[in-house]
Design brief:
Blueprint (H helix, E strand, L loop, with lengths): L2 E5 L2 E4 L4 E8 L8 E6 L6 E6 L7 E3 L7 E6 L4 E6 L8 E7 L10 E6 L1
Length: 116
């Protein structure tokens, strides 16, 4: 059974930083590209960052987070991370990790709230 456990969210002022973590079990982690998804209040979930499965660990970011967010992965720990810098109020939302493209399994997410 696939399990995804996100953590690291919280309340932060604009301009601050947070580091999200996601522990993964129940899948062949190294075979899958992984992504961080954001669901703003009242909106649909969207992919904000992805990292490839191969050793090159190629990353790709949504336009509005490029240059501020950094995604990384640890294949030994089966974990994915999202370093978020220069946070803005529009980054507020629940953050989830999943494969990219996403599987049917979702964790509980972690709430990020950025105050102005």
């Amino acid at each position: 059974q696939v399990q995804l456990v996100e953590s690291g969210g919280g309340l932060v002022q604009a301009g601050g930083s947070l580091r999200l973590s996601c522990g993964v079990s129940g899948m062949f982690f190294t075979n899958n590209a992984m992504g961080w998804y954001r669901q703003p209040p009242g909106k649909q979930r969207e992919l904000v960052a992805r990292i490839s499965s191969d050793l090159r660990a190629i990353t790709k970011y949504a336009v509005d987070v490029s240059g501020r967010f950094i995604i990384s992965r640890d294949n030994i720990k089966k974990a994915v991370y999202l370093q978020m810098n220069s946070l803005k109020p529009e980054d507020t939302g629940v953050y989830y990790c999943n494969q990219d493209p996403p599987s049917e399994y979702w964790g509980q997410g972690t709430q990020v709230t950025v105050s102005s």
